[in-house]
Write a structure and sequence with these properties.
The complex is a heterodimer of chains A (about 270) and B (about 190). Chain A contains ten helices and ten strands. The termini of chain A are far apart. The longest helix of chain A is centred in the N-terminal third of the chain and has 15 residues. Chain A has two domains: about 60 residues, no CATH class; about 190 residues, 3-Layer(aba) Sandwich (Rossmann fold), CATH 3.40.50. Chain A has about 270 residues and is an alpha/beta fold. With about 190 residues, chain B is α/β, with parallel strands linked by helices. Chain B has one domain: Rossmann fold (3-Layer(aba) Sandwich). Helix content of chain B is about 30%, strand content about 20%. In chain B, the strands form two sheets. Chain B has a seven-stranded parallel sheet with strand order 3-4-2-1-7-8-9, sandwiched between helices. In chain B, strands 5-6 form a two-stranded antiparallel sheet. In chain B, helix 1 crosses helix 6. Classes of the chains: A alpha/beta (about 270), B alpha/beta (about 190). At the A-B interface, helix 2 of A face strand 6 and helix 3 of B.
Amino acid sequence: MMIEEDEITILLSDLFELYGYDFTNYSKASLKRRILRLCSLDKFPSFAELRYRIKSDPTYLQRFVEEITVNVTEMFRDPQFYKTLRTEVLPSLGSKPFLRIWHAGCSTGEEVYSMAILLKELNLLHKSLLYATDLNPTVLEKARKGIFPLPHLKLYSENYIASGGIHDFSSYYTAHYGQVKFREELSEKMIFSTHNLVSDRSFNEFDLILCRNVLIYFDKDLQETVLRLFDESLGSLGYLALGSKETLKFSSVAAQYRQLNREKIWRKIY
Amino acid sequence: MAENLLTPSHRLVVIGGSMGSIDALMKLLPNLKVSVPFALVIVLHRKSSVDSTLADLFATRTRIPIREVEDKDTLEKGNIYIAPADYHLLIEQEMIFALDASEKVNYSRPSLDVTFESAADTFGSATVGVLLSGANADGTAGLTAIKKAGGLTIAQHPETAQAPFMPQHAITHTVIDYIFSMDELAAYLNSLG
């Protein structure tokens, strides 16, 4: 099955007009792949069939959004990144009376639980609030429950140790029937909410914003808009953390930031 | 710089490989002339890690500028680009790279099929797809897409591959224009105008 560029444009304008979801500044190459993948998963014989289903069945919209956006994530992904959070970033924020952290595009929450574990081990969790947002309510519901598939825990545990964790990782969860549930005390400080980076505004001032492997799905214009939104939402001397292949350097806000060593973490320098 | 910007009238060569391909590329790269008139993209299966040592390793074997791709990098001819570990590598119509951290394809991220298919979509008949040594079936569907788009397909001669399964799988299941040893591949790429 083939999809032409202008067919994608038509579909995106349907989505915006009917449902208010604006994907027009998403990466076209990635979007096209995701749409073709969905057509194959849900066995649409043609692009027209997909378009008709989206226009005529509002309940299908939720599935479309969930499958078009990428929800692949893991705990302590890129252990060196978490080591830097543990040894440099969080200790430098530790003297604050209160810590506000925003996970933008948190998906099913694996990174939020990783952060809660770091904060717990640094004795900062009690004075922290973790705001976790995503445009997709279905993944937020999963994140809120803190339940993850057991087979993934071997990797997560290895990542945790490689990131400098010295506790027994299995003490943070209980396993039941192929799934694990993370301890309630980790999720007590989490606030989950839908937020669309394309259309929603800044909603608070933060000390640390994490948005990893989300900007790669946006074109350069939308990246700039979102980086400005983060800049408006960061307090002075706050930190912004991006994915390992993402950068601030093309953005107009770059001059106000200093990058930490080799990690994709920038500090607001005023 | 502007004269280096690619348009689809220039060629794009995408080399994909898995087990045994690092050695093959260490042989190929010193034999490529420095001013190649195409952009060369290398996609290899490897363990997920964020270190960029593969680009450093290959840089010891060639004077062609070589680097690991970052999000939204521009494709320019005369350069070699390495797909980063743990991301699929796509190419936008605007001749810039896009990275994608979605599900593995053929148990792999980066997947060779994903980049081959994206290259075919953007560069069409100006695409040359090369499949090297490896032990899985990734790459065959991608070469089929390149062939469909009017591009050219090459497989490493299985007898010269440390792991012959991957090039042999493509030779059996799709249309391959040339089956080359690494010396023949270098000579062919040097002859591209």
